[in-house]
Write a structure and sequence with these properties.
235 residues, alpha/beta, 34% helix, Glycerol-3-phosphate (1)-acyltransferase
């Protein structure tokens, strides 16, 4: 499973949860060549299972390059470069899965190196996946929290479509520390809670072209919050 976190998480998602998806057609923009960015809200470490597992199911994988993994052919619609916590390399099983993948590691207290790597990936016409809130916290409603400016700075630096993906309520799977969240999720294998996931219409570069970073940040935050309100109303 080395270098194949998408494959691993897709299998895990099938066993742990039922995922109801709205807006699947909006992923079609990612079939077009060129840079792109996926933005996702983040409330618990196990919501990665829901989002990344679903994307893999529909051909958008975070697995490493099929060529580098020495696969005979690539049947994916697109490979995605997610920005993920460097803590994954501290756990033996997680390290085995993510090593060799396209994940861009980041330290939540200093994301400068991850920002540079993400910008390079976009300029190389790749697709990245990012959690704009920057960390895993939660409020009473599990609603999206303020974005860190790095996501918006990337959006202003490279002309590309942005695909927002909002989910609610991944707290059903597990909350708290990494270990606690995973153990809670595994304990629900026979209950399989339903999580709602909504893929929004793409946001295009022209929509924020005349905004400065602060204005663009407010615009993107509001667009995402509107999407989250729609998906939360389904639960």
């Amino acid at each position: 499973m080395r270098g194949q976190p998408g494959t691993f998480l897709a299998g895990l998602a099938r066993r742990l949860t039922k995922i109801k998806i709205t807006g699947l057609e909006n992923l079609a923009i990612l079939d077009q060549p060129g840079p792109a960015m996926i933005v996702v809200n983040h409330t618990t470490v196990v919501d990665v299972v829901v989002v990344v597992g679903t994307l893999h199911k529909y051909g958008f994988t975070v697995d490493g390059s099929c060529e580098k993994l020495k696969k005979r052919s690539c049947n994916h619609r697109r490979h995605i470069r997610p920005i993920g916590t460097s803590d994954m390399w501290n756990f033996p099983l997680a390290k085995q899965i993510v090593t060799g993948s396209g994940i861009i590691p980041t330290n939540q207290f200093n994301g400068s190196s991850a920002y540079r790597a993400a910008l390079t990936a976009l300029r190389n016409r790749e697709c990245i996946l990012i959690y704009p809130e920057g960390d895993v916290q939660i409020n009473a409603q599990a609603s999206p929290r303020p974005w860190r400016r790095g996501t918006t700075a990337l959006a202003k630096s490279v002309a590309m479509p942005i695909v927002p993906i909002a989910h609610h309520d991944s707290r059903k799977l597990g909350t708290g520390s990494v270990l606690r969240s995973i153990l809670q999720a595994l304990s629900r294998v026979f209950k399989r809670p339903t999580i709602h996931l909504m893929i929004g219409t793409p946001i295009f570069a022209s929509e924020i072209a005349n905004f400065n970073v602060s204005q663009a940040n407010d615009y993107l935050e509001e667009k995402f919050l509107t999407l989250w309100k729609k998906v939360s109303a389904l639960t």
